[in-house]
Amino acid sequence: MTKLLPFIQHQCSAPIWRMEIDEPGHIIFLEIRNSQDKKVSFTAVDLTNGNINFEDIATPERWLTGIEAAYDGMLLVHNYQSESGPAHKGLIAIDGISGQTLWSNYTLGFDHLSVNGPVVYNVQIQPRKLVLAAIKTGLTLRAYQPVIDTEADNNIVAAQLLPVEFLEHLPLPVVPYANTVHYIEYNNFRIVSLHTFLDEQLEQHLYILNHEGAVVYHDLLQCNIQKLQPEAFVVHKNKLIYLKNRSELIVLNL
What is the pTM of this model? Predict the structure, then answer.
């Protein structure tokens, strides 16, 4: 029986707040937030070869910033208008290979990502007029056309939330805690995320079983947690992607 092994294991310096996959560029971007130092940094990992393109780079705004979107080898970052509100401010474009900032524009707001690139608007003009922008230069190209600028698909497969009784036919070595589990069937693998409660300690586990029902991979995602955790993993183009202890990125080839 062949056991699965991680293809990518990358430990970050602080909790990973958000992940964004650049579909055409095959890069996963991480937003890492250190609440003690009030510092946000960004890391880029190549999903094709596992290389770390750059690590822990920061923008001039160290805290009130975050990932907006990723497309065609580029990371779009926004600032926040204030620490007390969720409103975004401006756009900064970072090259996904070098980590260099290629352009910034603080009069543009991000609306959504289309198959042809980011759809943006000038925050100084009302009513809002959507335009297509070139992600590598920040230049606006033309008016947004919904028929051809359809919303981009990131090809992410999310887990189903299923009743715990669903696991009765699976030979798992633990007893699940709680009424639901997260589950995906993909490439003849069955992937399960569940919680256990043993010795007064709540833990979250990940199991992968092959088509014969044998466990070919197991990881303890979090231990000594205070409450049930949300969905623990996603699948993207034959790769299982998850976080361990909130700060380690792990990717497996399925």
Answer: 0.95
